Fold this protein.
Amino acid sequence: MLIANQGITVQKYGGSSLSSPEKICRVARKIAGLRSTGRPVVVVVSATGNTTSELVGRAKRVSSTPSRRELDMLLSSGERVSMALLAMAIQEEGREAISLTGPQSGIVTDSTHANATIREVRPDRVLRELDAGRVVIVAGYQGASPEGEVTTLGRGGSDTTAVALAGALEAEVCEIYSDVDGVYTADPRNVENVRHLSRVDSAVMTEYARRGAGVLHAPCLDLARREGIAVRAGATFGGDARTWISCGAELEYTGLDEGGSPRIAGVASRGRCIRVHATRGGARSRGAIVEALRRHNVVPESLRPDDDRVDVLIGTEEAPDAEGLLADIRRRLDGVAVVSDSLASVSVVASKHGDRDELADRVDDVLRRVGADTFSRHDRPLSITRSVAAEQRLPAILALHEALVESHAAVLAAR
């Protein structure tokens, strides 16, 4: 192939970057400018604006329980609209471009509808189009099973598509653009004094995404870590601020003076969680819970190994059909486990350095100080998570961020 070892650039643009014809044209000018430097360019796109939500709403108006296969056929159309419009806009800028669906791009998945996993990428068609001098626009979030069925990848699937293509094309970096300029220590919409992360280890960022940080998605980051691909996240139309995510990167806050390293990557939260809790039943409870969740393509991260207690916390965004999941597990686990959905989670995600038990104690002290009742505790090597009442979520986030991020950053900056 002519383009071998010529430094392919892989970019992904989110739906907010493509939500109007004007924005699509701005993105097209940006891509055309990059292509003018001679670099081969592959672009992955999400559905424009609120297209996916609108399509789900239309499906629910014609069927109370739409089949997952037909939902995949429907929802995959959103990204196809984006890819075609962007290709047209790039052509208008005087550059050759072609749009390809996920299956046309060689994205091969398993046979799971609504939450498929990429098994293989066969980029032959993409490479041929790049050799012909075209910008290749790929519809994210979708692929095809070995049986030829259209599948979708679940929440954040376009990010995962971009990283998978970057790996198959041997790109060193995958650039992911959205309406925010990278990753912060908390959601800037809720917390004022957030710090911007300039660098973060991919394992830490994966954990941050799993706990509710919304900029990037855990499957994409997991894949990037396995493939050894660095991810650069930034704003499509913003300034120069970016977050660099790679294996082994030391955690850094943007603008922090030298003299110390921060420990806390951020405070994350999930606004609505389903808790499945059993104090007895052992293996029977675990088996019943796992089976109920897997019916909805939700695999619990871990179950406590002791015989008499099971405690699982699931963010509803992890479930393709949260309401269906809740109703089904309540029916299936009646008499086996307690199922509740009026909770939120708050998590503190840390770098690999430091004492986890000490951090857990500090988290509990802060929550007690603001009067947040803790219903369950879920500690992992890189995160401390507590479930709290939904109305206590925001006070808990603010207090944890102030105590563990703002105060520590101030100390480091003063050194």
